[in-house]
């Protein structure tokens, strides 16, 4: 518990020092923990950066913190026992955990995505002005009178919410009843449950290359092998996939995000989907269709999903309200054959007894009252404006170095930089200048020249400011390349 001294006469740098020492003493920050950036600390304490620097220097001098050049400030293990009762080296213990930690770049992005002082140009999350906070509050108010605290349920999630989801899926040509739907805490949990409950170790998980999945440890943590299949302009190389299946002769599964894919925002054609389903039929290949961007279509309605075209039981379809309402709700779902859903529901009971009831009940009201659909039409108009705005700016300021295709839906602009731009340097230099972008190499080792920009996660002004900064960085890189050629 923080014991920060709020006395006005207490020097500000001592206030910061006390706060940091409290966190370490209470075991909240353990040995090896990286401290927030100076900029974030200055913001948190409402002081200038000189005060933060002063406090950090004092703590370093007493051995409580240490600097790693080019990396940041960390909790040191010297004098550790002087300030904390805790002697366990959690860092070493966690190195042997079953689940691998995220790679460095991903951890950096995750840390900076919550830093309010950064310009968020990469984040796959709606800007707060696009969340339907007011109307969702109305739904919470509507359900509050009839809400009763209750015991554990069967792990599948709120029955009424599953009924509405089933009805909405039927409208999209997917005929699953509520007993074939499992509510989960976001699409990511759906992927975790599937890998824990349905796949055996050593399974080959085929997926588009590039793919959002490469930026996560899901599947790999549980001993699955990821096998990228070339995915160019929304076309999965089905012949390549077939050759892989034949050669590997191992249990396999295909993960696809075929509508407004993260990160490319491309959609697979109807013909390409048919080819995939034919292959799935021939090789009894189960498919996970992650379809969480479907509702953010911009120019025309999204193409039919794989699940709606499947006349066998090959496809498990995942949805989520994270991209259209808000990630903090943590509501997603899996629709699939009833016995598979039953198995995943059982696993859910073993894991956490199911999702929290209140957000589900409020979400049900939000859907049946028509507020969700009203919000979607508002959202599409806003997202369309932002997409056009970003495309215009990219063309104006970055057009000399990048190629892109205008996305028809989703949240991202997938840029391909010419080979003279060092994207790794651009990423680090942009962070130094307060702009966060997502480099393509976190989505596949072959996408070193790509960057994923998001047109939904910042205000119009910040989008513009961020793109101008990217231009300045590239210009400066060009000047220094030029100088080094002649020096
Ligand atoms: C393709 C894809 N699947 C799943 C997720 C995770 O979504 P959720 O917040 O519903 O767990 C994301 C988040 O960015 C995503 O892009």
Explain this structure to me?
GO terms for molecular function: DNA binding; DNA-binding transcription factor activity; pyridoxal phosphate binding; transaminase activity. Pfam families: Aminotran_1_2, GntR. This is PLP-dependent aminotransferase family protein. The structure is a single chain. The chain has three domains: 85 residues, Arc Repressor Mutant, subunit A, CATH 1.10.10.10; 125 residues, Aspartate Aminotransferase, domain 1; 237 residues, Type I PLP-dependent aspartate aminotransferase-like (Major domain) (Aspartate Aminotransferase, domain 2, 3-Layer(aba) Sandwich), CATH 3.40.640.10. It is built from 17 helices and 16 strands. It has an eight-stranded mixed β-sheet with strand order 4-11-10-9-8-5-6-7, with helices on both faces. A hairpin with a 2-residue loop joins strand 6 and strand 7. 39% of the residues are buried.
Keywords:
487 residues; alpha/beta; Arc Repressor Mutant, subunit A; Aspartate Aminotransferase, domain 1; Aspartate Aminotransferase, domain 2; 3 domains; 8-stranded mixed β-sheet; 4-stranded antiparallel β-sheet; 17 helices; globular; disordered N terminus; binds pyridoxal-5'-phosphate
């Amino acid at each position: 518990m923080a014991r920060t001294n709020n006395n006005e006469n207490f020097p500000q740098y001592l206030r910061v020092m006390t706060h940091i020492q409290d966190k370490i003493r209470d075991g909240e920050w353990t040995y090896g923990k990286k401290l927030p950036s100076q900029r974030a600390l200055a913001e948190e304490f409402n002081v200038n950066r000189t005060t933060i620097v002063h406090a950090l220097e004092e703590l370093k001098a007493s051995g409580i913190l240490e600097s790693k050049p080019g990396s940041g400030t960390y909790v040191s293990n010297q004098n550790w026992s002087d300030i904390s009762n805790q002697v366990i080296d959690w860092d070493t213990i966690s190195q042997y955990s079953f689940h691998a930690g995220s790679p460095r770049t991903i951890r950096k992005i995750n840390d900076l995505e919550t830093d309010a002082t950064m310009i968020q140009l990469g984040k796959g999350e709606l800007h707060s002005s696009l969340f339907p906070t007011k109307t969702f509050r109305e739904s919470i108010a509507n359900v509050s009178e009839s809400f009763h605290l209750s015991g554990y349920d069967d792990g599948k999630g709120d029955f009424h919410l599953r009924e509405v989801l089933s009805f909405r899926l039927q409208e999209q040509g997917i005929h699953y009843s509520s007993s074939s739907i499992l509510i989960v805490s976001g699409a990511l949990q759906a992927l975790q449950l599937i890998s824990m409950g349905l796949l055996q170790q050593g399974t080959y998980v085929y997926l588009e290359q590039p793919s959002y999945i490469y930026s996560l440890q899901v599947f790999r943590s549980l001993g699955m092998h990821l096998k990228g299949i070339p995915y160019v302009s929304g076309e999965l190389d089905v012949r390549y996939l077939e050759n892989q299946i034949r050669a590997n002769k191992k249990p396999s599964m295909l993960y696809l995000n075929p509508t407004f894919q993260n990160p490319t925002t491309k959609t697979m054609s109807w013909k390409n989907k048919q080819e995939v389903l034919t292959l799935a039929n021939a090789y009894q290949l189960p498919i996970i269709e992650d379809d969480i961007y479907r509702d953010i279509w911009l120019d025309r309605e999204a193409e039919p999903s794989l699940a709606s075209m499947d006349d066998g039981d090959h496809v498990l379809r995942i949805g989520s309200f994270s991209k259209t309402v808000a990630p903090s709700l943590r509501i997603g779902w899996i629709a699939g054959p009833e016995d598979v859903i039953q198995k995943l529901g059982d696993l859910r009971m073993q894991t956490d007894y199911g999702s929290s009831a209140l957000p589900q009940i409020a979400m049900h009201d939000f859907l049946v009252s028509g507020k969700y659909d009203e919000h979607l039409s508002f959202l599409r108009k806003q997202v369309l404006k932002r997409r056009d705005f970003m495309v215009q700016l990219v063309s104006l300021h970055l057009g000399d170095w990048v190629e892109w295709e205008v996305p028809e839906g989703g949240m991202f602009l997938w840029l391909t930089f010419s080979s003279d731009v060092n994207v790794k340097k651009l990423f680090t230099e942009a962070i130094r200048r307060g702009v966060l972008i997502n480099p393509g190499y976190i989505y596949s080792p072959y996408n070193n020249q790509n960057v994923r920009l998001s047109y939904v996660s910042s205000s119009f002004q910040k989008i513009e400011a961020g793109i101008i900064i990217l231009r300045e960085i590239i210009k400066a890189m060009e000047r220094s390349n030029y100088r080094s050629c002649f020096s």
